[in-house]
Structure formats: structure tokens, C-alpha cells
């Protein structure tokens, strides 16, 4: 490949690999309390007139917001950030710096007043104030040099609790945990009863084994579980020995290259997933899956689907919060078991939704169309509002179906959501549609308040779920179940 071709591949927005940042639940805006008008000012976009600019509206919007990060392929090159990203950083840094300086000056004035009354202040104290002033200036300089990021636990405390804190286990929760342990320790686990217990959420202590059973990775018979685990783990690493070296062969280079580009984009704000050892594990899992499924191969978005399994199986070996956990301290056997179990569990999930990732992704196209028909029946004002401002469902719901709402929700919420998906028949392929409908209607007030195309797309791609926990997911699932009960067995009710 010539140098000119390589540069075109890297720079062209129409080709994979040159993708701009996305802001969502896992990758939130730099300032969660940003002023909406300032966003539009920064983008310098002229007012939108739907009738006169219909053809180009979404393409113009897409230049400012996209679905991943523009990461250079060659080592040593800097990451390119769009002007909007840089402008927002400098604006936030300037406003914050002014506030800090004003606050510091007020403190200095108070110190001077106190000095006139209390004249026994030592030279050592005055020297300390001067040192603090120097430290403040240095911190402000650093603040202008680096982007601001919210300090929010995205994975930490992923057990059964809300994001706001970890309440002590109640009597009811202890009883539920004991019930799970009884089911899992029986000679032949009653999978139907296990699904009923799992629907409202699975305790962290028993989640790894429960997920293995509900996904079909482990048999219900207790005596067969360990032999099955050993056999499947050996089989996976047999695939590694057989296929992984072929990543350097010409006919597999494009697949491996795309995987290698996408891995750093997976949960970029969570330190766990930025560790080289973890990224190597993800690369092996995704490449082996792509080689063994040539009908679809690797598609962007599949990389996100590994993360919940990896975190859940990691908690089997870690008692502390995993967000900042260094996996290098785990034994090699533990890491191999986590990797193999994540591969097989992800494979079981994708077996049920593989038409989402085959050529032209027909599964996603059908689900988005079904979502449009369903919303038109359950909330006609929202549906008409989208039509009025020419917002297509595919423009925001494609990502909801492709990534199973993982870009819209914090990872702790995704894990709780998948408890129910594992328990629900066809949870990932069928029930997810009703979850998406309930999720959309949850924001009907905010949607109806937006009165232009760009405002609607900005809202739908940056929904404020960063502080969601189990309570919000429980309400979402209850509404989704209600919709399924009303419409799933009567599809003509939501067809026009």
C-alpha cells in the first residue's frame, strides 16, 4: 500500500479507522452541567431549516458527532481531537480558573484582615501562603493543559446497589442470596426457577456461575460442570494456537487491524480496560471469534459486548472494586480462565443475534423498524415530533441495537440489565426491543422540548444516564415488560 493510500485511509471519514469522539453514558461530555446554548455556539452551526436543508442535515451533524474515537494507527502519533472538543476544554478550563482565582483572592483578603487583628502571625505562615499561591498557579496551568474529566465510578461497586452508595445487605437480600446458593449447589439446577430468581437481578457473589448456566455455557448437572469448563477452556486455547498467528497473514490483516484500532476505544475512561494485558486478551477473543464466524466476521460494536462478561468473571477472583484493579497480579491460570469464559459466553450471546452483524446488518434494520412502529402506537406525540423535525430512528437507534444500549448506560447498569436479559427468553434478540422503546419514552419530556434537528440528535446521543443505578434500571425493565405483555403476542396492535 502506497503512503498516499495509507494517508487517505486514515483521514477519510467514509472509511473505518477515522472516527470522531462519541459522548454518552460511558463517555460523557467533559462538563455534565454544560449550557446547551454554549454547545451550539461552539459548533458555529447556522440555524437549521428542515425544509431547505433536509438532504445535508444529518451529514452536517455527523461531522460533529460520531460513534468512536479518531485514533491514529501509527505509534508515536498524537490523537486528533475535533475543534469542538478542544473548544469545550478551553472554555471549561477558563471558567473554572476564574472561579478558583476569585475564591483564592477572597481567602487572601480574609487573611489580611485577620493579620491586622492578630499580629502574631509568624514568617513561616506567610511563607506557607506564598507556597500555596505557587502551587495554585501550577495547578491552574495544568488545568489548562489537560482535558477535564468527571470523577465518576463507572464500574466500581457493581454489586446489587444504586450508584449513590453501598447499603448493607437487607434480610430480604440475604434470603435471595441463600436461595441462589441452594439452586446452584443442587445436583441438577432448576434453570426455570433460576431464571425467575435472576429476573430482578443477581447478587454479585453468585453472578459468574449464574451467567454461565443461563447462557448455556455450563450444564445444569453439577457433576458435569468442572469437566465441561476444563474442556471448553482447553478448546479455546487450542484455537489460539491454531489461528492466532494467522492475524499477520494478508487475508486476515484487515480484520486484525480494525480490532487493534477499536480496542483502545472500549471504555476509554475506565483504567481497567486501558491495561495492555487486558487489551491483549480482548484482541485474542475478538480475532478468534471473527475467524470462526466468517459469515459476519468482526464488526465494530462487538468489542463492547466482551466487557460485561470480562468484568463479571473478573469479580470471581477479586473482592475489591475492579475499576482500577491491576490484572497483572492475578495468576496466569486465573487470567486464562477469565479469557476463555468471556469468549464462550460472548459467543453464546452472539449466536442469538448474529444477523445483527452479517452483511448489511439486516437484524438491526428490522429491529429499528419495529421500534419505530411500536413508538408510533405507544406515544404518537413523540413519533410525530421526530417526523416534524425529520429525525430518522436509524440515526440514533442503530447504535442502541448494535451495542445493546452499552453506549447509553454506565457499565454497572449494563451488567444489571444483562441479568434480566439472561433470564428472559430471547432477552438479547427480542426483549431488547421493548427495553429500547421504554428507554426512548423515558425521555419524552426532554424530546418534546427540543425544537430542531440538531438539538434532538444531540440529546439522543448524550442522554444523562451517568448517575443511573439499579433503581432506574428496575423501573426501565418493568415498563419494558409491560410493553412486551401488551404487544409481543399481538404484533398487529403496533402496525399501521
Automatic annotation (TrEMBL):
<feature type="compositionally biased region" description="Basic and acidic residues">
    <location>
        <begin position="30"/>
        <end position="44"/>
    </location>
</feature>
<keyword id="KW-0343">GTPase activation</keyword>
<dbReference type="GO" id="GO:0071889">
    <property type="term" value="F:14-3-3 protein binding"/>
</dbReference>
<protein>
    <submittedName>
        <fullName>TBC1 domain family member 22B</fullName>
    </submittedName>
</protein>
<keyword id="KW-0597">Phosphoprotein</keyword>
<dbReference type="Pfam" id="PF00566">
    <property type="entry name" value="RabGAP-TBC"/>
</dbReference>
<feature type="domain" description="Rab-GAP TBC">
    <location>
        <begin position="201"/>
        <end position="425"/>
    </location>
</feature>
<feature type="region of interest" description="Disordered">
    <location>
        <begin position="18"/>
        <end position="59"/>
    </location>
</feature>
<dbReference type="GO" id="GO:0005096">
    <property type="term" value="F:GTPase activator activity"/>
</dbReference>
<dbReference type="InterPro" id="IPR035969">
    <property type="entry name" value="Rab-GAP_TBC_sf"/>
</dbReference>
<dbReference type="InterPro" id="IPR000195">
    <property type="entry name" value="Rab-GAP-TBC_dom"/>
</dbReference>
<comment type="function">
    <text>May act as a GTPase-activating protein for Rab family protein(s).</text>
</comment>
